[in-house]
Design brief:
Chain lengths: ~260, ~325
């Protein structure tokens, strides 16, 4: 990375992190809402552990994977809304008048998502463990959970950037939020894939990447170390991030029409 | 290469910008701005001022024509143009969550200034625009005038030779406006910075600009120094109000001997004096000899609004139109 690119990434990342930390309205809902749903699900669905073949007798251990994905969904909205606001206010034009490089802009903007991802992962995991969840993979597993959570948060953040650059409006970005929640509900969120007996639901959940992201977390929480599940989880996060970055880079070229 | 190009001015030839399903926002304008000159680009909302600025600052490709800024072509040498110019565009594009100092740090870093120079330059510019006291406050709490001054400081971060200011004082109170005028004048006079300033305020163009271009419906309808433009339409207007309402018709006839009628107040009569202001005494004598008592008599020197009226048939006040939305339309040139 050249010096100027490094400086640009660093400065834009610094701004993104400051913006994130200075907007409690971005941080608080992304922490409270998933934890609230965790409490509701853990209380209401605990009898699911009695189903034959359920992988653990602790439902909170099973459902603890969900807040990490819900938190990452907030990253779509937060990173996208921030960029959309820059477009709407003309701040992007200000940056466009500098020797700004597209890669620096996108990478810098994801820094806020990275920090939020770290905070979210630590909070969700800590609350889950305090509430009685197991962590079969131990301390090392906790670190991998944080790493996986951050990877997914950043990957989803690229989708927010793409939406902001493509549509140029915060409202359009926020409109994506319920769409992404549908993906979560159509996954093996509440039950393991094997126990989803409704054919159409099983089919959709089995091709829904969110199912395998959840499974990567669950493997660490319930089983210990399952390299296959982890590789699939990190691989899907990397694929989403790569595709999101490519799409965002393409949209940036259209958005930044400077000569 | 012309003298203007070499010296860091602006040269525009037959510049056009068309938007999809819309009119030509800019329709073949030609203009030249010399180094160190303050050029006032005057026109109502929607006349094409901002579209022109976006093209000259490389943020919007022209549909046709050429423009060279600081000697560089805006289409083929965009990065060189951007390195040469500073710009404060129509809205003060600031991040309400960052402080003034953080804005300066970001802007100077993006322009590639070294780490130590960044802090020094940022502090110097904040001091210069009178914001040092608020440097560590979030911009969300700044007043409109403070935001505009910060915007100007940011535009100057990399010591540009040419400065574009798009309606820099719109919405500001008179003190903030005057402070900004002083700073812009100083930049041109002391630092030799070329300033391209769009405005819809006549007094701003009159007070600041060495030369003024008047744009309407995308066309440059007049250009010259404020004095030249006023002299071109030249004649002052005299307006008289008769003491007796019944004398208004006779007064109209008497004043009609001195020039063509112009717009007046409901009770008054106004004419543009063919012979200039020296005819005023003659007008008074003529009215007196006809026995018409005068309640009120006023001589109006020509203003830029008169110039605008003469060139477009409309007063600048209330001549606003909706300009095509560049952001929406920029990716879809016609």
């Amino acid at each position: 990375m050249s010096g100027s690119l490094r400086t640009q990434v660093g400065q834009l990342a610094h701004r993104s992190i400051l913006r994130t930390l200075r907007q409690p309205a971005q941080i608080v809902p992304s922490l409270v809402f998933p934890l609230f749903l965790l409490a509701v699900n853990a209380g209401g669905l605990k009898d699911a552990t009695n189903l034959p073949g359920f992988p653990t007798d602790s439902y909170i251990t099973f459902i603890l994977a969900v807040p990490f994905i819900q938190g990452a969904l907030f990253s779509v909205m937060n990173s996208g809304t921030d960029l959309a606001r820059d477009i709407e206010t003309g701040f992007l034009n200000r940056l466009a008048l500098t020797p700004l490089r597209g890669a620096a802009l996108l990478s810098g903007l994801l820094a806020g998502a990275f920090v939020l991802g770290v905070v979210q992962a630590i909070v969700y995991l800590s609350v889950g463990l305090l509430a009685g969840a197991d962590l079969a993979a131990g301390v090392g597993g906790a670190l991998v959970i944080v790493l996986l959570s951050v990877s997914i948060t950043v990957a989803f953040g690229t989708i927010g950037l793409f939406a902001a650059l493509r549509f140029g409006s915060g409202e359009a970005v926020q409109g994506l939020f319920p769409v992404f929640f549908v993906f979560l509900f159509l996954s093996a969120m509440a039950l393991p894939l094997d126990l989803l007996t409704t054919d159409w639901f099983h089919t959709i959940a089995s091709i829904n990447p969110v199912t395998y992201l959840l499974q990567a977390f669950r493997s660490l929480l319930i089983e210990g170390w399952n390299v296959g599940d982890l590789a699939l989880g990190f691989g899907i996060a990397a694929a989403i991030g790569t595709l999101g970055m490519l799409a965002a880079s393409s949209a940036l070229k259209t958005r930044l029409v400077r000569t | 290469m012309t003298e203007t190009q070499r010296s860091g001015g602006i040269e525009v030839e037959a510049l056009v910008r068309e938007f999809k399903n819309g009119p030509r926002a800019v329709d073949g304008i030609d203009l030249e701005v010399a180094q160190g000159e303050i050029y006032g680009f005057l026109g109502p909302n929607g006349a094409g001022k901002s579209t022109t600025v976006l093209m000259l600052t490389t943020l919007l490709p022209p549909t046709a024509g050429t423009a060279r800024v600081g000697g560089f072509d805006v289409v083929s040498e965009g990065p060189q143009v951007r390195a040469t110019i500073g710009a404060a565009l129509q809205e003060a594009a600031l991040d309400p969550l960052l402080t003034g100092r953080e804005h300066m740090r970001l802007q100077t870093a993006m322009h590639g200034l070294g780490k130590e120079e960044r802090a020094a330059r940022g502090g110097e510019l904040l001091e210069r625009v009178g914001l040092a006291y608020a440097a560590d406050r979030k911009v969300g709490g700044y007043s409109g005038g403070m935001k505009r001054r910060l915007d100007l400081a940011l535009a100057l971060a990399h010591r540009p030779r040419i400065l574009f200011l798009d309606e820099p004082t719109t919405g500001l109170d008179i003190q903030s406006r005057t402070a900004l005028w002083e700073e812009v004048s100083r930049l041109a006079a002391e630092d030799g910075v070329t300033v391209f300033l769009t405005t819809q305020y006549l007094e701003e163009a009159d007070a600041l600009a060495n030369r003024v271009g008047i744009i309407d419906h995308g066309h440059l309808v007049a250009e010259g120094t404020p004095a030249e433009l006023k002299a071109e339409i030249g004649r002052p207007t005299v307006e008289a109000v008769p003491r007796e309402e019944d004398d208004r018709e006779r007064m109209t006839a008497v004043l009609g001997r001195f020039g063509e009628h112009a717009g007046s107040s409901p009770r008054g009569v106004a004419v543009r004096l063919d012979g200039g202001e020296s005819q005023l005494a003659e007008v008074v004598r003529a009215l007196d000899s006809e026995g018409i008592a005068i309640e009120h008599l006023q001589l109006h020197a020509p203003s830029l609004d008169d110039v605008f009226l003469a060139k477009t048939g409309r007063s600048l006040e209330g001549a606003d139109e909706e300009e095509p939305d560049e952001v929406e339309a920029e990716s879809a040139p016609a």
